[in-house]
Amino acid sequence: MHAVFSEFDPLAAKQAINTEVAIYALKREIQNILDSYMGWYDPFSELIQNGLDAIDERVSEGEEDYKPQIWVTINVKENTLVVTDNGTGLSKEKYEQFMAPCFSFKSGNTRGHKGVGATYLGYGFNYIQIATKTEDYSAVGKMTDARKWHSDPNPAGNPKVVHDSSGPVCGEFKSIDKGVSFAVIFDKSTNPKALSWVQAEKAEQWLTILSVKTGIGSIIEHSNIIVTVKVIDRNGEITRVDKSGTEYLWPHKLVAKAVKLSSVRKKVIELFAKAGADFRMPARMKNIECLYERITHDKLKDFVDIDDAENEIIERHRPVVYFAYMHTAKFWRIYNDGLGIRGGVSILQPGVQLAANNMPQGEVSQIPLTRNIGRQNQIHVVVHLDDCRADLGRKGFQKELIEFSQVLSRKLIEGPIAKLRKYLRPVTGSRGDLQRQQQVAEWKAEFEKHEREHPLVIENTNFFLPVKSVAITSRPTREQDVIALFNQLLAGGVIRGIRIMATNERLTYDGMYRVFFEVPDENHIHDQESNPLGVTRDNVQSGFKSEPKILEYKFSLDALIEDIETGTKNSNDIDLVVVWETGKDYQGNYLITSLLDPDNLSERAYHGITHVMTNLNTGQREMDLIVLQELVDFLNDEVGEIDRQRKKYEEI
What we know:
The strands form 3 sheets. Strands 5-4-3-6-2-1-7-8 form an 8-stranded mixed β-sheet, covered by helices on one side. It has a 7-stranded mixed β-sheet with strand order 15-16-17-18-21-20-19. Strands 9-10-11-14-12-13 form a 6-stranded mixed β-sheet. It has 3 domains: 10-67 and 79-193, Histidine kinase-like ATPase, C-terminal domain (Heat Shock Protein 90, 2-Layer Sandwich); 253-423, no CATH class; 458-650, no CATH class. The chain is α+β, with helices and mostly antiparallel strands. The chain has helices at 20-35, 42-60, 92-97, 117-123, 146-151, 203-213, 261-275, 308-317, 330-338, 399-420, 430-453, 479-491, 557-565, 628-636, 638-650, and strands at residues 69-75, 80-85, 127-133, 138-144, 162-163, 179-185, 222-232, 238-246, 258-260, 290-295, 320-326, 351-356, 359-360, 379-385, 498-502, 511-515, 549-556, 576-581, 590-594, 611-615, 621-627. The protein is globular. α7 links the parallel β9 (258-260) and β10.
């Protein structure tokens, strides 16, 4: 049945929103919810969680011939995520109320029941479409610019869900009898900003990711659900994979020879009783690639010693503990590299993954070892807890539960695993040496080609005396190259106002420096030919030495913008950023002023900085920049680069 669609305000469900004070209070409530969602995969988790909960509800109704299914469509080209289920659907009442803060129709037995996920989806993005279909109600509505509304101090009314005459984004939605379809579009103000960032272009890649990061990776297998993942890559090419059942990506299933720890322990006891200490293990129990086990809460005492406080947590939350201990710590890197996604992105990694409501939640935490350091890098532990919920949004679990899981993991490593490690396959290095030699040869060839095609030349002969040339032969390709080139420019006298205090990583930042104005002053004063990165005479502070300042290195400024917007790093802490290129993600929130443009020379506070980044919202000077690519081009072609600087930065 199709009801007449009238636009509505989702916040009306909270009542009394017609006063300015009430609206501000609601905005603060929404902000708290949005702040609790910091993970790159949070939109995937929330949408899939909602779909699986709806499917579980319909399964519980005992409907004959019901075939549960969930469709996930990831459109990298259009930067869109669509999740559709054939669960119960949303009634008219639920449809008009479910996005209100802390307003939930779910029970505590479902994956989501805090009433914040739908609010995050509705107000964390600037486009969301919600299509619903039940026996007596169907609707297709959309809400736009809700995130912009939330950040606007004086918005013109609340965002409304309006009828979407274009119909549901998901093609499969038309064929189902009941269910819900959500579609969200990502942009520069959302997290993630671009689905292309992770560089997963195929459906199989995304299914792997979702099987670790979302409810598709259920801790207890749900074999009846059909999962369909469809991916449209940047070129518009489509791949699709269908999978029967939801189940976590258990690491022991990824190797050729995995054996349960309890089986090995049982065999050791059996053979020792027969032959004493000189017994020989059968071949199937030697050279093991992975020792694993799944332990229910009532069996934990059979594996590790449990104290009273831990026993109380066990009785309250009935944990199910899974672990996979690999014969080499390299397994995780090799596996992640083999996925063919963005370098450095770890989908499966060592540590403790907490789970609740039959799905992984929160981030993996490290296992603190006081001895045998390094063994924690060989194990992946999943601890599923009953009667437990993650904090608001997806920030994580209570501290006592995190510590309990970490201590339990440590006891497993230092207890039963340590006793049976000798049956793991030894890491001899022989086969790895051949692979390493091939990799090194390929690496050398790759960089010889890069050196030929992208040489680094600085033609200004006033620097790098007496050789008058930089010691780096090719243009940077990664952050380490940026650091090396920057230090060359310091040593060669190109940059004279900075002294490095430390480059080792402390806290979350890369290093510290001081600003110096050492005598003679002429070394700091701008001269077009001999000192192009100098300051005006008025800006010279003879003999000045600053307090320690924070320094960051990145290949692209985009990476730092990402760190700032995800909360990994705080722009208020950072004084100077050295990058090879600016990228484009700063646009919209920041303004960059080029100090290579002689019209802006007076804004250079100390020798060497090439640009200044300003916050467009506050107007404050955010941080100084040294953009090495543009600096090198400036030294080689000053007139041409000044023209390029004006075109690039004055058009914004």
